[in-house]
Amino acid sequence: MVEQGGVCLRRIAKGRRAAIVRYGRFLANAKVTVAGLVASWGEQTAAAAAGRHVLAIQDTSEINFRTTSDRQRGLGEIGKGVGRGILVHAMLALDAADESCLGLVAGEIWTRHGRVAAPHKKRPLSDKESRRWVTTAECAKTVLAAAETVTVIADRESDFYEEWAKVPGPGFHLLTRVMQDRRLADGDNLYAVGESLADAGAAMIELPARGAAPARRAKLTLRFGRVTLRRSQGAAPDLPASVTLSLIEVVERRPPADTEPLHWRLLTTHDVGNPASAWRVVEWYKARWNIEQLFRVLKKQGLRLEDSQLDTAERLLKLAAIAVKAAAITLQLTQARDGRNSEPASLVFADDEMAALAALDAEYKGKTTLQTNPHRRRSLAWAAWIIARLGGWDGYPSSRPPGPITFKHGLDDFHSIAKGWKLKHV
Asked: H-helix or E-strand containing 10?
């Protein structure tokens, strides 16, 4: 998939019918399970995480496949419309010091089978889709066992009492954006307490582009304090009656015209005792956009998973599990582009491919320092610079940094070159 830049089986097999049949049999094999494929995501990440503070970022994306009333392919409903497809929940590991991508950790991939009649609040967590936030975090405790510290980061959908009460442990923290106002143990409301906190400083923060909204700088005012959540109605009665957390709020008081002001309410199990530690938590939460980049590479602007014509949900689920891993490799190159980390290129590339990279590096070397690969030879950043040049980036530090789609195009070209490089020795 990485080599061909997509998930189309005919393209991957280069039209060879025997290869298409073999891969079809692989996906149809009962011994090849979605759970087994997802479990393999974290094998390399476990070693890479050793001794680090890891940001374990999780989120869910919907993959909408083309269906008709006569050809629904066994797929369940997604979204609010008539779309049918699958849901991909993934956790991505980053180094907290430099946000270098360490790989995938764990997750879940599924399709819905009909609608659930029982009201959401009357079902136990084990019968709800929201269990994935807890089960994935629990898997991370095993995969990331060698890490020094783990901070699980998620957006508002994961803000429910069971997760706060069950998941945290020694060296294992949560950082989540608040979903809704909550009742606190002393009878106050969370939002009101946040509004009453004293301002603790302000700073200019770089906000990444999201959807149609461009990247921009925002001046944010900070406030923080300790809060104790009361066990919510509907939560299991055997859970603790309360949980004490740190609340951090950042507010944009004067946004640009026609721009919705940024207001983040963040809850975390980390102790936040001063403005410096509060700003550090805000920076960790900003890293959450990396999981959105992973899904961007997986879908229309990258591997185009939703274009697959496989005819059964079972095979599509397995295909998705493999495609997420392929998307993570592209993202690793994106994160290595500025050379802030020291990961070796061998994390992604085989020996023959390393030789091809060295030849390309010599070819791209310009007459000036600005046109020369600035990174340590054979590092992942060194390889990323070369792949970005193949993808159309001009290499100048003053130019806009290459994004995941540039890397995807560069990888498409590189793997064809690497195959030819290997054949020259035959």
From this structure: helix 9-12
Listed in sequence order, the residues at least 6 apart from 424 whose beta carbon sits closer than 8 Å to its beta carbon are none
Give the whole-angstrom CA distance, residue 158 versus residue 181. Answer: 14
Whether the full predicted model's pTM is greater than 0.90, yes or no, is: no
Sketch the domain layout of the chain as residue ranges: 9-333, 339-423
Q: How far apart are CA 408 and CA 94, in angstroms?
A: 20
- Give the position of tokens 């020094």: 148
Q: Is the distance from CB of 53 to CB of 96 less than 8 angstroms?
A: yes
Say whether domain 339-423 belongs to CATH 1.10.740.10. yes
Q: How many other CB atoms are there within 10 angstroms of residue 167's CB atom?
A: 21
Ramachandran region, residue 220 (left: φ > 0; alpha: ψ -120 to 50; beta: rest): beta
Indicate if the alpha-carbon torsion angle 175, 179, 180, 185 is positive or negative: negative
C-alpha separations of 36 from 5, 70, 355 in Å = 24, 31, 33
Backbone angles phi, psi at 105, to 5 degrees: -115, -60
Does domain 9-333 fall into CATH 3.20.20.70?
no
Strands 101-110 and 149-154: unpaired
pLDDT tens-digit profile, the chain (426 residues):
876 778 888 888 877 889 888 988 999 999 999 999 999 999 989 999 999 999 999 999 999 998 888 888 989 998 766 789 999 999 999 999 988 889 999 999 999 987 776 777 777 787 789 999 999 999 999 999 999 999 999 999 999 999 999 999 999 999 999 999 999 999 999 999 999 999 999 999 888 777 667 778 889 999 999 999 999 887 888 999 999 999 999 999 988 888 888 999 999 999 999 999 999 999 999 999 999 999 999 997 788 999 998 989 999 999 999 999 999 987 887 767 666 666 788 877 888 888 899 999 988 887 777 778 888 898 888 998 999 999 888 888 788 888 777 887 888 889 888 888 888 766
